[in-house]
Every structure is written in C-alpha cells, then in structure tokens.
Amino acid sequence: MNAMILAWSLTIAQILLGLAMVCAAIRFTRGPRAQDRVLGVDTFYINAMLLFVTIGIGSGRTLYFEAALIIGLLGFVATVALAKFIMRGEVIE
Fold this sequence. Notes:
By secondary structure, this protein is an all-alpha fold. 87% of the residues lie in helices and 0% in strands. The protein has a single domain (2-88), classed as Helix Hairpins. The protein has helices at residues 2-30, 34-59, 63-88. The longest helix has 29 residues, at 2-30. The radius of gyration is 16 Å and the shape is elongated. 8% of the residues are buried. This is K+/H+ antiporter subunit F.
C-alpha cells in the first residue's frame, strides 16, 4: 500500500511540475519585460530540478540527483548573470 501511494504521489507531482514548466515557458517567451523573462527562466530551472528529483526518487538512481544538482548550480549562476546584465548592461566589469 505504501509503495502504491508513493508511486501515485510521484506521478501527480511530475504532472504538476510539467504543467508548471509549461506556464514558466510561456512567461519567459511572452513576458512583457525583461524582468518577467528572468523570473520565468528562474522558475523553469527550479521546476526542472524538482522534476529530476522526483524521477530520481521513483527510479532509485543517483544520476538524476546529480543532474538536479548541476541544474540548480547552473541555473543560479545564469539568474545572477541575467540580473546583473539587466541592472548594469554588462556581466563582467
């Protein structure tokens, strides 16, 4: 019974994360301002990271957790670089 509840909850979480990724993709493609697009990209990578974590929990492989860690690190750096570019017009001073 517990394994079945875990499987259903993981499936529901993956579906909802996929829908959240679609909403974030719409935001960063049709965002009216640059700030909206940066927030859309930020939301997209966080949802992708969480999707990899749920897939890793379901499959039991550590590869998905490592991929989620890399996505988190690269997404954070990309968000900081984009925010710095919007604020100052350049990334490297």
